[in-house]
Fold this sequence. Notes:
The chain is an alpha/beta fold. It is built from ten helices and 16 strands.
Amino acid sequence: MKAARLEDGVLHIRDVPVPIPGADEAVVRISTAGVCHSDLHLARGDWGGIGRSGTIGHEAIGLVEALGPGADRFVQIGDRVILGLGGAGGGYWCGACEYCLGGQPRHCTQTKAILGTFAESFCVWAPSLVRIPDTVGDLEAPLACGGLTAYGAVKKLHKHDVVPGRPVAVIGAAGGLGHYAVQLASAFGYRVVGIDVGADRLDFVKSLGVEAVIDAEDAVDVVQRDFGGVDACLVFSARMAGFRLGLKLLRRSGLFVAVGIPPTSEGNLELNMFEFFMKDPTLIYSAVGTVQDMRELVDLAAAGRVRSHVGRVGALTDLGSIFDELESGRYVGRAVINDLTR
Ligand SMILES: [Zn+2]
Ligand SMILES: [Zn+2]
């Protein structure tokens, strides 16, 4: 079967053996695989150089085609499923350590990643699979990481006492994660301020039904004038400038939710301690979500409360050009590979 591989940062489409499932594993024939910004960061070695060799891809929808011993406790052959869970943490968790039992399986000491969905078939730990109804189409594959990550971040608002009705800024609102966050936060009843760069991207955000759309350049002044600062910022930026902007937009005692991971070369987020003292913000990171979050998100998608905006569709051999287009912002929303055989 065909599969994409990175070899020293160079993308190749290779012929590899079809995987054979082990205990509690399922082989999924991939119908559609989403292209996540993390795949690009790995290909470019953006994060301290990690990941420049190996299989990639961690968002997919497909059909279960083979089961290892015991996997039939979780799924059946022929089930249509979504898989990915943001790559990290979706491949295995022990279920018994302090983190698993505390509801944070991502931090499980035995965690394994899901990487390799840019392939005709993929072998995955069956408990991480979520069945999807026919009303959720194949183009919704990016829900598996982009959608889940946005959902996880929006759920943090409630957890940290930012209640519906309050103003919340989404930075990077037109992007692969941000466009989900604005839909979800609006559906939950927040007053959503969508922030991005450029007229086309702002028009797209407006079409998602948010309360206000602001260009990043004007955001500090306009948010202050119209809202007196926001109660929370969800930062989905691939650039450090978006994180700095997020801190500036918060009102006193606001919630800062970091989601993206800019390249290591962009440096660090710095805090002025006097401003920190004055503003007294809560700073948290939000990474992907759990299988339960994925089930809830599939329900929201089935109810029409959230949709993937797919701005680019291609075959497996288009993956290299899709990376280039993603890097230069040439499409809005997400890209998907809907033909893994060529
Ligand atoms: Zn991802
Ligand atoms: Zn564990």
